[in-house]
Each structure stands twice: as structure tokens, then as C-alpha cells.
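Example (one chain per record):
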Amino acid sequence: MSTDDVARAGDAGDWLATAVVVLAYFAYMLLVAFAPAVLRSPVVAGSGISVGLVSGAAIAAFTITLACIYTHRRNKRDAAVP
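Predicted structure:
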């Protein structure tokens, strides 16, 4: 397996992960722009934690998780190259 084969093998998954992260951030920004009241509302009535805080943390965790998965997959592919 050559370096070019390894690079091509990862392209589709890499672009898919990139598209998913970009769409998640874009959706969040649309929510911030057009429905800020939704983000200001509390998760539970009387709680000081808002939907915006939880959704922002969820997007950050999602992005970090995808980065870890990408790194793990890429390291496995790179280890296969002599």
C-alpha cells in the first residue's frame, strides 16, 4: 500500500466529517441569529443553565470527539504505510 493509496482511502471519510462539523456549526449560528430566545430559555424551569450553554458544549464535545476519531483512524492508516 503506497502513500497515495492511504491518502485516497481517507479522503471520503475526511470530507464527510468536515461537512458534518461545518453543518453543525452553521446550524448553531443560524439558531443564534434567528432564534436567540430558544437559546436563552432554561433547560429545566427555574434552572440557571440555558439551552444555549448546553448546545454549545454539545457542539464542542462533538467536534472534539470527531477530531479524536479522525486522529485514531489516520494513525492506523499511516501505520500501514511502510
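Caption: The chain is about 80% helix and 0% strand.
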